[in-house]
Amino acid sequence: MKSIVLACALLLCISFVAADVEHRPKPTMPYPEIQITHHFIGSWRDGSRNNEMFTQYDVVIKNNGNRNIKQIVLGFDSTCRIRDGNAIWNMIVTDDGHSLVLPAIQDINAGASYTFGYILYGNAPANLFVKNIFYN
């Protein structure tokens, strides 16, 4: 009986050690009224950049809420590898490089959408999430 308990405890320890654990924090969705959708535009290899793969996406931010958005702050993880400073449009990368924000003159009205685009290294879209919203 002791050997069965010991074997079970050993197997439990091994399962914890062998588990595939993701080490980055999972973003939460504290703003369920916001929907972020990626639309694939195209992919290509750039011979002038060591034959790197690049992919262009349009991203639609949909305000399903009943209030107008004055500013939205989007966060991202290591999957957001923008090709260069000219490879994102209709959004601004913050000075610290960790967030995307709307241009100062842009709002997203209730029920409306806003589209921006970017070109990334690789062929998968970036993981984007809402960090904060400021309403009118």
Automatic annotation (TrEMBL):
Give a GO cellular-component term: extracellular matrix
Q: Name one GO molecular function term.
A: extracellular matrix structural constituent
Q: Which SMART domains match?
A: CBM49 (SM01063)
Signal peptide region = 1-19
- One Pfam entry for this protein is CBM49
Domain Carbohydrate binding, residue spans: 34-123
Domain of life of the organism encoding this protein: Eukaryota
Swiss-Prot/TrEMBL keywords: Signal
Q: Name the GO terms of the biological process aspect.
A: extracellular matrix organization
InterPro entries tied to this protein: CBM2/CBM3_carb-bd_dom_sf, CBM2_carb-bd_dom_sf, CBM_49, Dd_Spore_Germination_Stalk
Protein's UniProt name: Carbohydrate binding domain-containing protein
Question: Species name for this entry?
Answer: Cavenderia fasciculata (Slime mold)
